[in-house]
Amino acid sequence: MFEGLLRSSGRLLAPMTAIVVLLAGFGGTPAALAQAGWTPFGELPGADAYRDVARNARRIGLGGRVRDIRFDETHAYFLSGDGWQRVDLATGERTEADAKALPDRIRASRGGGGRGGRGRAARGRQVTEEPSPDGTFTAVHRDYNVWLRSESGQEIPVTTDGTEANRFGTASWVYGEELDQSTAMWWSPDGAYLAFYEFDVSNTRDYYLLDGLSELRTGIMRERYPKAGDPNPIAGLRILDVEGGGIVTVEVGEDPEQYVYAVRWTPDSSELLFNRTNRHQNVLEVMAADPTTGATRVVVEERQETWQRNRPEMRFLEDDRRFIWETEKSGWKRYELRDLDGSLINPLTGTTDPTSEAPTESIVKIDEDAGVLWFTMRNSETPTNAQLHRVNLDGTDERRITSVDLNHGSFQIAPDGRTVAAMRQAVDHAPETALYDEDGREIAVLATGDVSGLAKGGFHGGELIRFTAADGTTPLQAVLHLPAGADLESVAKYPLVVDVYGGPESRGPSNTWSPANALCELGFAVAKIENRGTIGRGKAFEGATYLNLGGPDLDDQVAGVKAILAAHPEIDPARVGITGHSYGGYMAALALVRHPDVFAAGVAGAPVTDWRNYDTIYTERYMRTPKENRDGYDAGSAVRLAENLEGDLLLLHGMRDDNVHPSNTFQMAARLQDRDIPFEMIMFPTATHGIGSAAYRSSKWSFLQKHLDGAATANEKP
Question: pTM, whole model, 2 decimals?
Answer without folding.
Answer: 0.91
